[in-house]
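User: Second chain of the day. Same drill as before.
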Amino acid sequence: GGGHLVVGPFSGVVDQNEQIHDGGAPGPLRDLIQIEVDEWWPVPDGETRKISFNGETITAALWTEWLEPQPGATVIAHYVGGPLDGRPAITCSRLKEGTAWYVSAALRPDGIESVLGSVLEASGLPFRSVPNRDLEVVTRSDGITDYTFVLNHGTRFATVSVPPGARELLTGTRLGGSINVAPLGVAVLAHDWAKVAPFLSISTDHDPQGALQS
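Assistant: Same format as last time:
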């Protein structure tokens, strides 16, 4: 129906009672993501594996998998070197108006950003080419008002732009164009329903005082 799903490694292994699904991973997701996990390939401590994705090389650690794509899956990325050299690493299957991606490795943060950026782009959604990994932003909506939670996991103040007329619910303050969030701080914003993402823009430019500016 137009949704886009990204499934990570070691998914669809057991049910809610920790019983392994018949036929192995990815269990009930098999028909959706159109792949079979033939074998798990844990990565030894201290080692990494390389994946060729969209003309760049991204890195995985801890976990990789031997995939057998089914006819409905398109191979998006391959392993480079190591025991899975040339094997599929990331696949994408299209079902009606939506897509289902499978990522068979535990990617490093830059790899996750590259893959999710491509998924968002393919979905027609905006994304930040250089995200701020210290900031977590989640929005929930009732279709009238958006409630946006901003969590600063970093050790420096962060400044984010906010929608017009936003109110910070923890303090009751009406906000202008931006809000400063303290290190390890939280802000909860209420603002009019935004039909188009992103709800907040976050910059990664550093000011002389070490704050992140919008």
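The chain has a mean pLDDT of 88.

User: Great, on to the next one.
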